[in-house]
Amino acid sequence: IGIEFYLIQDKYVNASNKKKSYTNPLAHIKDKYGKLEYDDSKTFHCTAMCLNEIGYQNILTLNYLSNLKASDEVKVDGENGCFKQKPRITERLLFKYSEGLAITSGCRLSLPNTYYINGFKNEAVELLHQFNNKCENFFIELHVAHNEIEEKMFHFLKEFAFKHNIPTLVSNDYHYVEKGDLKIWTILGGIRRNTT
Predict the structure, then answer these.
(1) For 146-170, how does the pLDDT look when each residue is reduced to its tens digit (9 = 90+)?
(2) What is the pTM assigned to this prediction?
(3) Any idea what DSSP says for residue 33?
(4) Deepest of 63, 65, 94, 180, by most Cβ within 10 A of its Cβ?
């Protein structure tokens, strides 16, 4: 059993928009409409797969916590939930419940890959080291490259995995089966994001 979580960095969970004592390197990046693309509520993809019974229990716990609001009175092991518009987990929760799970570096929409794609290689490297040190079964996820950015990301991740002796797995994003389904998939994605 595997699940894709929306990961949010711990420092942004209860951050006040008025007073911040941290620097978000992605905060100045704007989308094609001029809106800030990476605000404090931005989530990133994170994939976890069960390896054994402990992993199965941990993935259920993470899934449960990701769907609880922080304001809910229900707690698991003293932990509040992180739900805000969509199910989310923090890095701290992921690391706490990572036993028995295979955790991957993720697809293009993961936090380390987002850092790398936007020119923050040092932050990407630091985060990959953090995941490797705190997750017993951490894998670098390699995807087939479909453009120049993904090609650079592929080589960066492949070299990082080789240099640090981290196991890899090869994956790819398949959101539709037939090539002709791209138009429908694009429309549904626009509806989900509330964009046209």
Answers:
(1) 788 888 999 999 999 999 999 999 8
(2) 0.74
(3) T
(4) 65
DSSP symbols for 7-74: EE-GGGTT--SS---S--TTTT-B-TTS-BS--TT--EEEEEEE-SHHHHHHHHHHHHHHTS-TTSS-
| Cβ–Cβ < 8 Å for 104, 22 | no
- pLDDT digits 0-9 by tens, 106-162: 888 888 998 898 888 998 999 999 999 999 999 999 987 778 888 899 999 999 999
- Indicate the residue type of 158: K
Q: What is the spatial distance between Cα 107 and Cα 129, in angstroms, rounded to a whole number?
A: 17
Cβ neighbors of 31 (< 8 A, separation 6 or more) are 37
Q: Which residues contact 56 (CB under 8 A, 6 or more apart)?
A: 1, 50, 100
CA distance 9 to 168: 24
Helix (H) or strand (E) holding 4: strand 2-8
Q: Would you tell me the crossing angle of helices 148-164 and 121-134 to the nearest 10 degrees?
A: 40
CA distances from 31 to 38, 39, 166 (A): 9, 11, 33
Across all residues in the chain, what is the average pLDDT?
79
Distance between CA atoms of residues 35 and 29, nearest Å:
8
* Nearest residue to 173 via CA among 130, 109, 120, 126: 109
Neighbours of 56 (CB within 10 A): 14
What are the tokens at 180? Answer: 């002709």
| Half-sphere exposure for 178 (CA within 13 Å, toward CB) | 4
